[in-house]
Amino acid sequence: MRKRTRRLLCLGLLAPAAAGCADPRAPSVVYKHDADRIIAAARTRNDAYAKLAHLCDRIGHRLSGSPQLEQAVAWAQEAMICDGHENVRAEPVMVPRWIRGDESVALIEPYERPLRMLGLGGSVGTPPQGLRAEVLVVEDEAGLAAAGERARGRIVLFNNAMPPYDPRRGSGYGTAVRFRHKGARLAAEQGAVGCLIRSVTANSLYTPHTGAMSYDGAPRKIPAAALTIEDAMLLARLAAAGQRVVVELRMQARDDGEAPSANVVGELRGRSRPNEIVVIGGHIDSWDVGQGAHDDAAGCVMAMEAISVLRRLGLVPRRTIRVVLFTNEENGLAGAKKYAEDHAAELPHHVAAIESDSGAFRPTGFSYEVNDPQRQQRAGEQLADIVRLLEPLGPMRVRAGGSGADIGAMKPAGVALLGLNVAGETYFNYHHTEADTLDKVDPRDLSDATAALAVMAYVLADMPDRLGEP
């Protein structure tokens, strides 16, 4: 039995990747030495945290159209030039300029007290004197439909709870964020005069969460804001007890047209196929609260530092690794759309694009998507082998699924898309809040995530064939 088992193992029938029997051409074998060097270098010396500190503490939040965003664009170019990268440039993009202005909400009946809120990005403002109206509390679309005419003239509160984080399924963000996006439109269709949502998070220490909303071309626009979980639940309890609940909402929010901005680009040029490209990056803009540390200053500095680690080690892959720091991800995706438009002619030569926009937590693997089913399957098999190189960083897995908003526009051109996955248990505690600050980032996790991004980018840029090809 032992002889038969050994024979089956070496034939690859029981365990194709068993020690001593791995395919010598597999990336997990070919790049093992280089990957170990990259991980060691990233853990012992990288400037990701120093860059993150500058971006967060010296520049701060970076809403599209703001002076801070343009300071960040200029700083990122200077930093990549100082690190010796090639073809560093700013590629112009026009972005929306939404102004928050002063804002507040207060409970008026059954008693008076201030409530904590953040206006939703893209919302219109209230009249100068504010908006006072009775609150209608509903849980979801069905509740709003059942309310019917009772919504007319009221401020609708969508008290929809985001499910807690599940280790297998991840966050429940996708189930709750729809009310942030379209709640105001739904409420307006029923005659409401304003919209409030329960903040899109499963945990709160009285922290409201902002984010983008959309009227989707609706003829009637009403102001929209997010309440803390605690205040949303308070209003829901009062209403359930039969109390008349009245609030006064004041918002100076306005659309101020467009403003010039830019995607920031820098490269580690390939040694033999420089016109074939692997893109890595994140988005350099953020909401106008907190410092945008996890979302997404961290993703930007990871990408910047990933090619710096490779350059210091003298590891120049066959293909070019291009860092792209996209502008205006949060409230428009103008940078992503403009990159795909400006680079349409060379997108067929983009081998892959990797986005990091899930925070600077412990890396756990990569998600991937390819528009061709056969390439998708092949890419999954290859990536499952490549992530074995990351085992010194902890358990890793690959999964088919979404990659990232900024790189999505490249998918129709056949570009293989990847998203860096990280431990997401606490990400939505900070997401789009005043609490998304530098102190929430663990330097070791940031270094490990940088290492994971650097290894993946290097292997995809250097392996003989393109990801997903037979």
CATH fold type of the largest domain: Aminopeptidase
Characterize the biggest β-sheet. 8 strands, mixed
Order of helices and strands: HHHHHEEEEEHEHEEHEEEHEHEEHEEHH
Give the strand content.
15-25%
Query: Uncertain runs with pLDDT below 50, 5 residues or more?
Result: 1-20
Number of helices: 13
Number of DSSP-assigned strands: 16
Q: How would you sum up this structure in a few lines?
A:
With about 475 residues, the protein is of the alpha/beta class.
Record keyword descriptors for this entry.
single chain; 470 residues; alpha/beta; Aminopeptidase; Glucose Oxidase, domain 1; 8-stranded mixed sheet; elongated
Describe what you observe in this structure.
- Helix 4 (48-59) packs antiparallel against helix 9 (293-313) and helix 9 (293-313) packs across helix 13 (443-462).
- Helix content is 34%, strand content 24%.
- Strand 11 (273-283), helix 9 (293-313) and strand 12 (319-326) form a beta-alpha-beta unit.
- It has 470 residues and is α/β, with parallel strands linked by helices.
- The chain folds into two domains: 22-98 and 257-462, 3-Layer(aba) Sandwich (Aminopeptidase); 101-252, Glucose Oxidase, domain 1 (3-Layer(bba) Sandwich).
- The protein has an eight-stranded mixed sheet with strand order 1-10-12-11-13-16-14-15, sandwiched between helices. Strands 3-2-9-5-6-7-8-4 form an eight-stranded mixed sheet, sandwiched between helices.
